[in-house]
Design goal:
Number of helices: 20
Radius of gyration: 55 Å
Order of helices and strands: HHHHHHHHEHHEHEEHHEHHHHHHEEH
Strand content: 5-15%
Helix content: 40-55%
Shape: elongated
Structural class: mainly alpha
Strand order of the largest sheet: 1-2-3
Length: 503
């Protein structure tokens, strides 16, 4: 701060400002003159003139008035003259003649100032120096910075997202675990029954001796009559229906409601007389009782009819794989032998259609039976290629269906084989023996026989079904790829403990 400002006298706040303006001299117009008086030795003026004399030709940049040694430029309002006090005289430098006051800037400058009243003076806020302006204490608290606001908003946003993420993850887990039960309780999800009026086409359903609601419900679903496997049984329980099911083959329609399916089964006209339906992938163990129940024979009579393969021109140790899966209708006087002969003839028709030589019939039927038990229809040609590729390099087939057939567990309703079945040294177990089983292991369809004769092109040596609900199957060329597919299978089985992977 300039020295002259610091040495200014302090005015009595109680003094009347009007006295100050009354004592001001009348302004006079003066002509500026040049001061030619030499400066006093040792004064600031002498030092400035000496510095200007020795300075280079290029003038330095002007300094800030606060940094110069001379007082800042005057304002348009005349300054208040300092009181002639001893303190003021002692602080000042030797007097330098001051220039005359400049001419008024406007007519307003010539108008004498009106002193404010005492009330206006009291209402004006007190102001300090520059230090008070920039560094003084303020009563109002400082506003928070933008950075702090942004940080707080970001933290709040992260917390909200974390909460939402946790709720979403929990909801996904609940729906994956209890989704079906929740949908059933709330009435959400896909309906289990077909809508009325959707029935179309034809379907045959075989009911065996002693069948109750559960197996009949499953048979209706597998025949395409009902929409889900349990809807018919659930309907019987819900409506408290007591019904006796009589063995035989029944002609119904596809996409029937549970109520309509029950009415059709009760209708005597729906039952086909002397009709039997042999299922795809069935074995002698399951087909013989079906024939007996459907046509009114004893199991011993039918078993005797299939005991001698040579009677039907089959050069094999038994008729496994030779009873073709289809729906048959016989005359009332047909015997068990007539019935078996008709089924064997139907198998030969399929072999001939696929171009199978008579001498190769047993081998093709054996391959086709494995294909029928191992894959879904769309994958039959690829499964056939895996079997052929392994046979070509004398690699064990290692098909679970063969191990289960030889051990007697093929119809237990599970896919995975037990350790005992895999290790049993029977002639059908391809985990123990190299090459094909000694006989077919089931009755193959037309599609399976054709695939056995015409495998797809490909390098695959492995395959595994990774989803029993959809039948999705992964085929692999290397063992490492196959292990990755098995991990998918394991994950599906863990997520679906009742899906049929194992007991």
């Amino acid at each position: 701060m300039p020295e002259r400002e610091s040495a200014s006298p302090q005015h009595d706040p109680d003094a009347r400002l009007g006295d100050l303006f009354e004592n001001l001299p009348d302004p006079t117009r003066q002509i500026p003159t040049v001061d030619t008086t030499p400066p006093a030795p040792g004064s600031r003026r002498a030092a400035r003139e000496a510095a200007q004399t020795s300075a280079p030709a290029s003038a330095p940049a002007p300094l800030n008035p606060a940094e110069q040694d001379v007082p800042a430029p005057r304002s348009a309002t005349p300054p208040v003259p300092a009181q002639n006090t001893p303190a003021a005289s002692a602080a000042e430098e030797p007097a330098v003649p001051a220039p005359a006051p400049a001419a008024p800037v406007s007519a307003q400058a010539e108008t004498p100032a009106v002193a404010p009243s005492a009330e206006e003076t009291a209402q004006r806020p007190k102001s300090g120096g520059l230090e008070d302006l920039f560094h003084g204490d303020h009563d109002e608290p400082a506003a928070p910075t933008k950075k702090k606001r942004r940080t707080g908003c970001l933290v709040a946003l992260i917390i909200v997202l974390a909460l939402l993420g946790g709720l979403a993850a929990g909801g996904v887990w609940v729906m994956n675990t209890y989704g079906d039960k929740i949908n059933d309780a709330m009435g959400w999800g896909e309906p289990k029954d077909w809508d009325p009026g959707m029935a179309t086409g034809e379907a045959t359903v075989t009911i065996r001796e002693g069948d109750t609601g559960k197996p009949v419900s499953r048979a209706l679903f597998e025949a395409g009559v009902t929409k889900t496997a349990d809807v018919f049984y659930d309907y019987l329980v819900k409506e408290n229906v007591a019904v006796t099911f009589y063995p035989g083959v029944y002609k119904l329609q596809k996409k029937m409601t549970a109520a309509d399916a029950l009415a059709a089964l009760k209708n005597p006209d729906s039952k086909l007389q002397n009709t039997v339906a042999v299922p795809e992938g069935g074995t002698l163990t399951t087909i013989v009782p079906i024939i007996a129940d459907s046509l009114g024979f004893s199991e011993e009579e039918v078993q005797a009819a299939v005991a001698d393969p040579a009677a039907y021109g089959v050069g094999a140790q038994n008729l496994e794989g030779w009873l073709f899966p289809a729906v048959y209708t016989f005359d009332p006087g047909a015997t068990p032998t007539d019935i078996v002969a008709r089924m064997v003839d139907r198998t030969r028709e399929s072999l001939t259609k696929a171009g199978v030589p008579d001498a190769d019939a047993e081998r093709i039927l054996t391959i086709a039976s494995i294909i029928q038990r191992e894959g879904r229809t769309d994958d039959f040609p690829k499964v056939s290629r895996v079997i052929q590729n392994r046979l070509d390099i004398d690699m064990k087939l290692q098909m679970d269906s063969t191990a289960q057939y030889g051990y007697g567990s093929l119809h237990e309703g599970v896919v995975s084989s037990s350790a005992e079945a895999l290790a049993d040294p029977n002639p059908w177990n391809t985990y123990v023996n190299t090459g094909l089983p000694v006989t077919p292991i089931a009755s193959p369809s037309d599609a399976a026989i054709d695939a056995a004769m015409h495998p797809a092109d490909g390098p695959w040596l492995y395959f595994v079904t990774v989803n029993l609900a959809t039948g999705e199957t992964v085929f692999s060329e290397t063992y490492e790829q196959h292990q990755q597919a098995i991990k998918q299978w394991d994950a599906w089985c863990k997520a679906n403990p009742d899906g049929g992977c194992s007991k």
